[in-house]
Amino acid sequence: MQTGQGRGSARGSRRAIQRQAIYAGLDLGTTKAACLIAQVDGVNPDGSPLLRVIGSGLTASRGVRAGAIIDLDAAEDAVRSAVAQAEGQAGLTLQSIILALNCANPESHCGGAEVPVAGREIDERDVRNAVAAARAKCSVRGADIMFSAPVSYAVDHTHDILDPRGMIGSRLGARVLVVSAMRGPIENLELCVQRCHLDVQDRVLSGLASGIATTVPDERKLGTVVVDIGGGTTSLTVFAQGQMIHTDRIALGGNHITTDVARGLSTTVSQAERLKTLYGSVIPGAHDERDTIVVTRVGENDAYSHIKAPRKSLTSIIRPRAEEILEIVRDRLVNCGYDKISGRGLVITGGSAPLNGLRELASQIFGRQARLGRPLRMSGLTEANNGGAFAACAGLVLRAALEANRTGAPEVLPLEEPVAPWPVKKLFGVSRWIKERF
């Protein structure tokens, strides 16, 4: 991560380099823009970098709908504000940033293919050919690849092999996860960032970033599902055997709950958001019948009036939409076929996750043990930036630090991959990074 303060010329040891490293992540959503700046502040006992948050920014987002930019100027203002807040706290000026991708209707595909190896020792060329054949089966016309990584290999009838190089067999199989999306919305997101005089250092799926930040390696190894409920979208990310095996997204989120409240109580959107945050719940309380809330309504000639309404009326509006969101995500999980192999864990994160009773409702709908997800393995977090709203940003910087710690330099995953196969070094780099760190 480059900053306006420049870099030292001495290279030193890997640990010395890591202690100087600074990473910044940006998550531009429908309702908020979040920026997080973190510095490597040592090494954990397991050898992973210890990150310390040195700056954060959060501002209301405008010009974005369902993760896609619809007003470039308004979106730019939101990015500038969030980045400026984080830079002010950190005391530096950023030149580049890691960007969360949550637009363009990403589609997840997992495909496999086999190639002959003639009973000899498997080498890197064989692996490259097998992965290329598997990726070709996952290509979508008119879409570009946002993420691609090998999931597992098979040699003859032996499956779930992590690294087949050096083994002997007659056929080599590869299974690859590919996430593709339309490029137009991604280009507009990048343009928005570039207009703020920032280079895009890397691009990471927001669901993957949230999963990295809010889960621990054991959870991902045993299998877990991460549901990130944002303002305009909700993402589903499935982990098993230590790696991401599926991701999906729906164009529904907390903002839709707010709109329902505004319509149901005939109030403004800002008042509806306030009521949802302060008094909202998806589970009826014992005293909801007699507890009241004050609702500001808009009357004739824009005159405001204040009325009292039973709290149960608010719950009766919020719960159906929350149920709809969770049930759609659950159905997507079942339809993708990974509900049985993704363990029993469920992590609910995102800016809308703290809604009272949402964790319990999610556990009931999914039939899993649910918990609220907050950024983990980072110091310097405060009450303001330790919630689900910063989960994706935290995952962006954590992933970058882990990757740099593994290789000595960050490895940028290209947004658009060439038709020709990737070099096998990159393929194994991504696969090993997932398996070693997650």
Account of the 3D structure:
The chain has helices at 14-20, 72-90, 124-137, 183-194, 206-214, 217-222, 254-265, 269-279, 311-336, 358-366, 391-407, 424-437, and strands spanning 22-28, 32-43, 49-60, 64-65, 68-69, 96-101, 107-116, 144-155, 158-161, 171-181, 199-205, 224-229, 234-240, 243-250, 292-298, 304-310, 345-349, 369-372, 378-379. The chain has 438 residues and is an alpha/beta fold. Among the domains are: 1-104 and 184-208 and 376-407, Nucleotidyltransferase, domain 5, CATH 3.30.420; 107-181, 2-Layer Sandwich (Dna Ligase, domain 1); 254-311, Actin, Chain A, domain 4 (Alpha-Beta Complex). Helix 7 (254-265) packs antiparallel against helix 9 (311-336) and helix 9 packs parallel to helix 10.
Q: Which terms summarize this structure?
A:
single chain; 36% helix; Dna Ligase, domain 1; Nucleotidyltransferase, domain 5; five-stranded mixed β-sheet; six-stranded mixed β-sheet; disordered C terminus; alpha/beta; 438 residues; Actin, Chain A, domain 4
Low-confidence residue ranges: 5-18, 408-438
Main sheet record: 6 strands, mixed
Count of helical regions: 12
Using the 3D structure, state the CATH architecture of the domain at 1-104 and 184-208 and 376-407.
2-Layer Sandwich
Helix coverage percent of residues?
Answer: 25-40%
CATH superfamily of the domain at 1-104 and 184-208 and 376-407: ATPase, nucleotide binding domain
Cα-atom radius of gyration:
23 Å
Strands of the largest sheet, in order across it? Answer: 11-6-1-2-3-19
Structural class estimated from helices and strands? alpha/beta
> Count of DSSP E strands?
19
Query: How would the global form be characterised?
Result: globular
**CATH T-level fold name of the domain at 1-104 and 184-208 and 376-407:** Nucleotidyltransferase, domain 5
Determine the N-to-C terminus distance: 23 Å
* Overall pLDDT level: 85
